[in-house]
Amino acid sequence: MRFVGSGSHSAFPVYWQHHNLSTKPESAAEMIHSVFLINYTGDIFLEKHWKSVINRSVCDYFFEAKEKALEPENVPPILQTPHHYLINIYRGKLFFLAVIQTEVPPLFVIEFLHKVAETLQDYFGECSESVIKDNLVTVYEILEEMLDNGFPLATESNVLKEMIRPPTILRSVVNTLTGGSNLGDTLPTGQLSNIPWRRVGVKYTNNEAYFDVIEEIDAILDKSGSTVFAEIQGVIEACVRLTGMPDLTLSFMNPRLLDDVSFHPSVRFKRWESERVLSFIPPDGNFTLMTYHVSSQNLVAIPVYVKQNISFMETGPCGRLDITIGPKQTMGKTVEGLLVTIHMPKAVLNANLTATQGNYTYDLATKVLVWDVGKLNPQKLPNLRGSLSVQSGAPKPEENPSLNIDMKIQQLAISGLKVNRLDMYGEKYKPFKGVKYLTKAGKFQVRT
Amino acid sequence: MDARLLSFRSEAAVAVRSAAVSAEHLQLSLKAHLSQEERTLTLSANKSPADRNEDLKEMLESNKESQKLEAMKRVVGLIAKGKNASELFPAVVKNVASKNIELKKLVYVYLVRYAEEQQDLALLSISTFQRALKDPNQLIRASALRVLSSIRVSIIVPIVMLAIKEAAADLSPYVRKTSAHAIQKLYSLDPEQKEHLIQVIEKLLKDKSTLVAGSVVMAFEEVCPDRIDLIHKNYRKLCNLLVDVEEWGQVVIISMLTRYARTQFASPWREGAVFVENDDKTFYDSEPEGKKEEAEAKAYAMDPDHRLLLRNTKPLLQSRNTAVVMAVAQLYWHLAPKQEVSVVTKSLVRLLRSHREVQYVVLQNIATMSIQRKGMFEPFMKSFYVRSTDNTHIKTLKLEILTNLANEANISTILREFQTYVKSQDKAFAAATIQAIGRCATNISEVTDTCLNGLVLLLSNRDEGVVAESVVVIRKLLLTQPAQHGDIIKHMAKLFDKITVPMARASILWLMGEYCERVPKIAPDVLRKIAKSFTAEEDIVKLQAVNLAAKLYLTNSKQTKLLTQYILNLGKYDQNYDIRDRTRFIRQLIVPGDKSGALNKYARRILLAPKPAPVLQSAFKGTRRRRICAKSANCNNLRRLADRDRFQLGTLSHSLNSKAAGYQELSDWPAVAPDQSVRNVEVLEPVNEWAPPVGKAKPPKSDDKFYSDEDEQDEASESSSDDSGSSGSSGSSEASESASDKEDESSDESDKSSADSGKSSGESEKSSDGSERRKKSAAKKKTGKAQVEKCHAADSDSEQSGEQTSGSSTRSSSSESGSDSDELSAAKQQMNEVESKAKVQKTAEKEVSLLDLHDFFPAPANTSESSGLSSNLLADLEGLSLSAVSSSSTTTPVTSRSFVPVQSYDLLHHMSGKGLSAKYHFPRRPCLYGSGTVAVQVTLSNCCERPLEEIHVGERGPAGLQIHSFNTIERLDPEASVTVSMGIDFNDSTQAANFQLCTKEERFAVFIQPAVGELLTPCGLSETDFCKEQSQLRGMNETSATVAVATNDMSGQGVARRVLSVANVGAVASSESHLHRFAARTVSSGVLVLVLLDLKEEPGGGAKLTVNTEKSVMASMLLRDLKRALSQA
Fold it and tell me: Tens digit of pLDDT for each residue in B1034-1090?
């Protein structure tokens, strides 16, 4: 109903506007017109316009939608207003809101906004309101460099960091004393070369290249413990600090496992296609080398099993909860960082439980039960049991809450993927190389 | 004593004074500091904004750099917070010429923001930018243009226009990129400039730099999206560049090319067309025989350019940037043959792992796709299972997709999944699930009953929303299932008391009315209940109440007459005019008696007419809207609105489901594809790969035109056919064809092709038969020697059949000399080269000397002769190279070599190679494998007693380096050796190319490491050009050193030889004897490298050596090498 209402309501102004535009070509605008940063409570604390200034009242449409959505995650990413389109992302309790005026691929804008968030994260270690407020001018300058006339200009953090140096404590002290700047005064060489992601003249005394193979298990288990859906998504995060222009080749023992991949732009796709090796000149510092999906033919090993029983009395204000977790297919490794999160039905007032291992918290406001188990001991299985008090008079909750499970297994890639070797060409020194494996639970959900 | 005391005292006094002074200073500075602190404190506390700005003004006008900077930071902070700082303009603009880069940048930021408001003052700053536009530093030029074009003051339009034009011709691709951005800005400032701007766009579209491509296409889309004709010539280049363009540019280029392709190519979706890939010969074969109708009916040959686009975009599906992946996906959706679209599925599903906003957009697109093409996403059904942590939009979209994917085979799985969703705590989602179940039930008749029963069970659900939704869906299902469902209707009647959701109540009433004859006892009772509560009902319920009353009156007037009249009376005085209208209408229709009873007798037929069953459709096809507007007159209109698939996928309009401003409809395929020759880069002879030239009368020949599917081939063949055209007579067609064939295969197998063509040349008829040529088996027993002999034979053959062109005479002479196996491959290569140069070299005897590996010393060259045509060829090839080549008209590549070093390097020692030894050297000639590759000649010798078989190149090292290997040498006899040539694209770096040299049994890892001087290719410059270029490469781009030149040979020639021994550069004629100039371009990216040796610098052997190039790393390496070479005695 609402859908229809808003649609037909907005159809008229849009057509009108379009007509208007066709007679006035100068209104055909750039891709991203303005960006607003808005905090959780709805304060605009930074605005940047790439052309004429758009009054911040345009955000009122967004606030209206935010109000309606209740949860910030439920705000529609794309909003239509009579004269503009608003595309927003929600990240780290902040909204990044882009104002656009004409047709543009929405993913283009979304991807760019995420890139902004990532860049800020990269610069300041975190992307939060307070950090941005502390570095307002730097953030503003970064935005200025990232977009020219609404079109992305320099988005590689290696290039940006050459133009606008990230703040460090030392530099800020020196700057205040000397009145120096944290702005690069040399050319960003990367931007101008054919390898835009790497700058020239990198020097390290310790040359090192570390690769973390991180796999996440996405799974849905049903009530009886059988797998409804499971898949493995992997990512290789790299931290490369190498002098000069190293050309790296990373090969796998079993590249056939990889089904669908996406790469950092530095990876030469042709070589991947022909030889299944990753060949690249790396950016300097941390970056995501590749993400992959393990082919679905392989059965996914589920490292833990969960025995659970959650029940609510038909009458009477209480319910019972009993959860036991045990190891299933862990390849002989220890499961660590086990954490169970349950979003309880609204009617559950409190939980009175005992945990044989770890401790639990129940947030009365958000109705989230978190059980922090820690390391999984196969000899003595962790158990959480007790009673739940339910608001009297409220009907029995329809659905039992599902359990979201978090865990980590060190030194294991659950798919069995193994890095074979890393070779370096183009430079003479011997780098220090390291590969680490880690398996994590991704969206691991047990239905009850 | 006194004197000493005195002096002490005075000293002390001085000390005290100085201490006092410094103390004072300290105090002062402290005070200043304090007051500043105070100021900030009080500022933020309670001073008015005007005061605050006064303070900033003061700081800006101070002469301390740090104060200014601090002030500017605060000003920019104000802007960032959205506060007004416009009145500071005069104070700020003064600082525009500051030396401090940070301050300058902040001022720029300020100017861009406020220049429009303070036009007069802004003009003060313009001259600074104009000066900066001429700065030797490309970054400063670029940023000056950026700011200048961002100042939206109409008076400066001509200045900006001029700046754009100049920047578009700048040597630095980065500046050119900025100029492309500036085009859009100027266009929005002054649309009058459109025509001029289009000229600039046209120019920039020809740019070969990957840096520029994305930005200029953006400008094109902005300024003149309808000038599709500008794209023709650049289409292939854009396709080939695409992979190396930065991510954002890729998105823009892909969407532009999508539009382009829809106007230029024939539809690959023709009904009933048998899809025939272009390498099939049937299509062309049938043409001359007049079977056109047959060809049309069964064969659709895809335009090779269309195929090129599809092939070159496919790797981008692996991009990390979701926008790029989506762009490729929509390209495939809108352009690819139906059976190929599914290659995008996996990548789209992958995007679902990304951020929720990305998921949202991608799911919307998948939803649209899955309506039309279930098969595409069915294997990935489970990826669309809903998680409890998904947010509402995502859940709904996933549900939508699951419903679209449902079919007989998977419906049970899906329904089981739906059962979980129905119980969700998110009631809106549960309701949506019920609708989805309803849709599945209507679409798949096998499960209708199951679904219906399930829904009936839901009627006893505790949640009202769920029940209401179930009622609505059941009503629809009952309509589609006119079978006996009396029980369900009765059940629903019982529920009428409990349900309060208006839509559900209305639905029950409607059902009662519709099937009142099936439940004759219950319906009047329901009417009684509604009559009681009529006034409290919602409008929609009231309308249905009136409806029910009317229907019951017609079927069962005895029991319901009074009730009906009561309801009609209530309706008559209702507040809502719709209800009053309806009541009046019904009353006239059904109550007999009054004079207006004309329709009365038809009342039953009108009200109780059998109703068509509603179609439950995807919301992405507009069910929701249609349900609501079912009674409205302009239903069609609205329905059209709701069809999301009328929008191009991936667009904003598609996401919003309404046309966004500036949306450009994707045109339908043209009925007949426009002339494809417009895309040929050279139009001398509109011949390309897939359309056999008219001149050729022999039909069997045409099929060798179809064998290759390399991307580059059409351009390569074009260029070669141009060359053959320029060589003149028709009699040379034989020769030119073999040349073009070699060109075709040059990217990977030119050696083989030339050898094979030699083999087949016995029968001159077949000399260019591609299929013949590819038979490798025949070659197996032949030694390299034999092959080359044949090869020469082939050429002399073709020469006999043709005429005596200069080129073929060269070759005939070379064939005579070609008996030494050492020379063989050199000869081969030479031939290829000669052919690719369109056979202009006339120096037959010299060619012989060139063939001799052991006598490589100065091969005299004729620059003027070779450059004309070969530059033509190179220009064509450059279109393929991915690097930024800024070829200015003043420089012509010098293809001749004045010096070739004899030095050869060990590639593989015969001890470690188990008898196989390999040496390599750099012949310093343009490589046949493409302009960006360095030619390397490898001499392989067999030093053991048994023959070596199948010598070839195996795995290759770092991927950036493209290695064009030689063809497998089938057999190398003991003591024999063979020279083969390879092409390696070192990317202008000295990193080694690693590869494996393999024999039948063994593989040896070897590497070729080039000296930096070998990565260059000489280029001819005049002295003035040299100086001009050099002056543009100052600053960062200049490296120099003082060299102690060994004194024994100071003559010009001696120096030149030394320089040439380490670097492949071309000497530039010099008017001064102490100055030696050399110019070259890097092989891979074509960046200019200038070497200047000034012997006069310091007497006594000291000389100044200067290298100017943008590649600073190369410069320093080159300098080092040159230094070493020059100082050697």
Answer: 777 788 888 777 666 566 677 777 787 888 888 887 777 778 888 888 887 778 888
DSSP A345-367: -TTEEEEEEEESSSEEEEETTTT
Candidates B489, B581, B504, B585; CA nearest to B537 is B504
Q: Which residue of B has its CA nearest to A144?
A: B109
What sign does the dihedral B430-B435-B438-B440 (CA atoms) show?
A: negative
B1025 at A interface, C-beta within 8 A:
no
Which of A3, A185, A268 is opposite residue B101, by nearest beta carbon? Answer: A185
Burial class (CB in 10 A: 0-12, 13-18, 19+), B423: middle
Please report the pLDDT score of residue B926 as a whole number.
Answer: 67
Q: Given a cut of 50, is residue B622 above it in pLDDT?
A: no
pLDDT for position B919: 83
What mean pLDDT comes out for the span A400-429?
Answer: 89
Beta bridge partners of B744: none
Question: Taking a C-beta distance cutoff of 8 angstroms, is the pair B189, B221 a contact?
Answer: no
Assign B347 to helix, strand or coil: helix
A215 has a pLDDT exceeding 70: yes
Average pLDDT over residues B764-769: 42
* Residues of chain A contacting B656 with CB distance shorter than 8 Å: 78, 80, 85
pLDDT digits (tens, 9 = 90+) for B667-690: 888 887 788 778 877 544 333 434
- Please state whether beta strands B916-921 and A34-39 pair in parallel, antiparallel, or not at all (unpaired): unpaired
Shortest Cα distance from B702 to chain A (angstroms)? 31
Q: Give residues 91 to 110 of B whose Cβ lies within 8 Å of A.
A: 100-103, 105-106, 109
The pLDDT assigned to A440 comes to 92
Distance (Å) of CA B688 to CA A104, B33, B697: 36, 77, 16
Two tokens, residue B442? 């209507």
Chain A hits for B349, Cβ within 8 Å: 260
Pairing between strand A208-221 and A432-446?
A: parallel
For A374, counting Cβ atoms within 10 Å of its Cβ (0-12 exposed, 13-18 middle, 19+ buried), the class is middle
Nearest to B248 among A152, A248, A249 (CB): A152
SS3 state at B133: coil
Beta bridge partners of B969: B951
B323 vs A110: CB contact, 8 Å cut-off?
Answer: yes
Judged by CB atoms closer than 8 Å, whether chains meet at B661 and A48 is answered as no
Which residues 181-240 of A are in CB contact (within 8 Å) with B? 181-183, 185-188, 191-192, 194, 196, 200, 220, 228-229, 231, 233
Q: What percent of chain B is modeled with pLDDT above 90?
A: 7
Give the C-alpha separation, B703 to B1051, whole Å. Answer: 59
Residue-level pLDDT at A177 = 53
Cβ-defined contact of A192 to B173 (cutoff 8 Å): yes
Distances from the Cα of A432 to the Cαs of A150, A429, B212, B477, B954, in angstroms? Answer: 42, 10, 38, 68, 28
Edge-to-edge strand ranges of the sheet holding A34-39: A44-49, A34-39, A94-100, A85-91, A78-80
Please report the pLDDT score of residue B326 as a whole number: 94
pLDDT, position B755? 41
Length of chain B: 1129
Banded model confidence at residue B87, pLDDT cuts 50, 70, 90: confident
Surface of B (154-213) touching A: CB under 8 A: 172-174, 178, 181-182, 184-185, 187-191, 194, 210-211
User: What was the ipTM of the complex prediction?
Assistant: 0.86
In order of B396, B704, B751, the CA distances from B745 in angstroms are: 53, 12, 9
Which residue from A28, A264, A281 is facing B960, i.e. has the nearest CB? A281
Mean pLDDT of A369-374: 92
Distance CA(B1123)–CA(B1055), nearest Å, equals: 11
